[in-house]
Write the structure tokens for this entry.
Amino acid sequence: MLILECPYCGVKGEETEFAGGGEAHLKRFGPESSDDDFHAYLFKRENPKGVHLERWRHTNGCGKWFHAARNTVTLEVYGTYSAQTTEPPKDIKDKISAKVPGWSWREFS
Amino acid sequence: MSNAISALQGAVYQGYVEVREMGLVGMITLRGDLSSAKMKKAVKEACGVDLPGQREIAVSGDKGAAWMSPDELLLMVPYEGVADALAVVEKALSGEHFLAVNVSDARAVFQLKGKAAREIIAKLCPVDMTPGAFEPGMIRRTRMAQIAAAFWMQDADTIRVVCFRSVAEYAFNLLKDAAEPGGETGLFA
């Protein structure tokens, strides 16, 4: 069971109050992009054993989308942060580094 | 025009906590910039209370305002007063980007009354109901079994629950089941 804290309403709730929204920080490729880029955007997803960045929505609460950094093995949640960003903030990265030295996820580390 | 009736028309169940459907309650969803001065004025004029802070609810008599999300409030007024309150809000917020909608007939409100009212919520929602962790003046939107709901405490022995009207019967049955005599846990006694 994950315990997530919504960065918008400050509620610390358990997983069933939220809904997962898949991988975070997807870079979108639409019309005019190359077939490879479009294919990667549509289908290629991370499936890590360890550190993962995800989108979540506080469905049964304030209804806002946000990002969460968590560990898929230990289910530890390193932190949650605003949806209005294209990369994890420094304090979240530092928290992950403190627990998992040398981690990397896509272009972030 | 036809007579307005609430979802369960004031149904009451007397368990070890009394469960009551509150009948018609006027409710307005108000979205906009909660930090603006006009918004504060609109809430004050429509409900007679100060704009509630994060996860807070301000109640004064049969009126009140609840914080629903960073850009949303739920205003509560008597059912007959909704049109007037909407007019007040629209006047106070003129010129701002906002949304105010009468949602009275889209919601159902329940009241739990009794010493063990906290217990009923604790059975149904993934929320810490320990005295001190949840107190009057706070509102919590969460999941109640399989539906979305929000609740707050009127006083130490009274909790009000609001949910969508379409699931009113489900909600009432849930609360009724949790309040059935013999189901006392004495968790917060």
About this structure: The CA atoms of residues 30 and 38 of chain A lie 7 Å apart.
